[in-house]
Design goal:
The chain is α/β, with parallel strands linked by helices and 350 residues long. The protein is built from 13 helices and 16 strands. It has helices at residues 17-30, 41-47, 52-62, 74-83, 148-152, 160-173, 189-201, 219-227, 242-248, 254-266, 284-297, 319-322, 338-349; strands spanning 6-10, 35-39, 66-68, 94-97, 103-105, 130-133, 136-137, 156-157, 177-180, 208-212, 230-238, 270-277, 301-306, 325-327, 330-333, 336-337. The chain has a six-stranded parallel sheet with strand order 6-9-10-11-12-13. Strands 1-2-3-4-5 form a five-stranded mixed sheet, with helices on both faces. Strands 14-15-16 form a three-stranded antiparallel sheet. Helix 6 packs parallel to helix 7 (189-201) and helix 7 (189-201) packs parallel to helix 8. It is globular.
Length: 350
Amino acid sequence: AFTPDIVAISTTFVLTRQHLTTIGKKLRANLPDAFIIAGGHHILKELMYMSSERKATYLKSTQIDAFIEDSQGEAALLDFCQKFPGKLGTVPNLVWRRPDGEVQHNVRRPENNNINSTLIELSPEFQDSVVHIRTARSCEFKCAFCSYPTIAGDLALMDIDNVMVTLRQAQKVGVKSIFFVDDTFNVPRDRFEILIDRMIDEGINLPWYSFLRCQYIDENLVRKMKQAGCAGVFLGVESGSDTILKKMKKGAITRFYRDGVGWLKKHGIVTVGAFIIGFPGETTKTVNETHEFIQNIGLDYYFLQPFYYLHHTPVHKKAEEYGLTGDGLFWAHNTMKWTEAIAHINRLFL
């Protein structure tokens, strides 16, 4: 009913080409006159392995009109919207279908946008909404299974004064709650503590949620988080086995999570723990250690997912050592294969 001129698709949670093609075809069938443009993690990941000819073939197969080929893409999307429907050939990092049906590959110009230039304006329409806020881009950790730092580049931090401007706006217009989407919201720790203290001092009393690293908290900081409005945290625990955590390069041991969850629970902050089953080196023994960990740590909620093998992650460099083959959800290594991981997940869940 809205009949938009442009539809922009983020592909963070698109895992396969078939998935994106299904989305593109459904949009095209229902919005035949819209210009459909896609960018984000899946687009960058897929296109980095393709020739120009294969990029064109993929674009046509999805029935999408354009891909933004950049790890950030914000500047390209803005430039595109400002020039649409005219001089699209001058928009950097665009792979697009011209009106004659041919695919054009525009000049590549990697973006490094100033994160302080991406402030959002919160108007009264956001009243009673959950608002997502980003105060940092990328992550300073290099977990072996994760592609985010590789794609996002160096860690970029928004000035705390700018974060506070957005939070004051959110409180003024009456938003329901805040979700900080930063990959590791409490890192660097000193910056996080300054922000928490500012929120307390300025009376920001909105409920908020974030991702959290337990090795960078203590009970006093958790107490202040609660005072500042923290209602829940998502913990990327990944494994209840110290053996697997070491292989994952998590920079953490299970004791950090046991202590952290205890403090969070004591101060009434909801905890969700995420776990990966099947990382190279995983065995029935280490899966059972994760099972015991989940049973006894006191998490409010937990989330299990199979190892997802991306070839632009640090673990790929050790593929030969681990006997690691395959791609995505379909993989095998010296100690497990994907079908076994799924069976373990079902067993633990039941």
